[in-house]
Amino acid sequence: xxxxxxxxxxxxxxxxxxxxxxxxxxxxxxxxxxxxxxxxxxxxxxxxxxxxxxxxxxxxxxxxxxxxxxxxxxxxxxxxxxxxxxxxxxxxxxxxxxxxxxxxxxxxxxxxxxx
Length: 115
Fold this sequence. Notes:
By secondary structure, the chain is mainly α. Helix content is 57%, strand content 10%. It has a two-stranded antiparallel ribbon. A two-stranded antiparallel ribbon has the order 3-4. Strand 1 and strand 2 form a beta hairpin. The protein is elongated.
């Protein structure tokens, strides 16, 4: 079953003490894990403050400034880690001649793969 992020948000409780695990949320909504994660990401991009409690409790919505700051710091560390990895991947792609500016030329990647 396909749900919009608004429908999913209605199932995410407010407050850390009410957090819901992703597998429980998926079960309630009769959704696959990947689809659920995509919809949660859409909700977050729309400005809904969904926090993922790293203790394993799950997702919840918050207005608590400390919880928002903790989520911000977790996201920032994750983003910086990904960017660090990108540096090495970009270097190799440039060496292979498949980067044009900051874009990967996929037709060139496919041509290289067939050589």
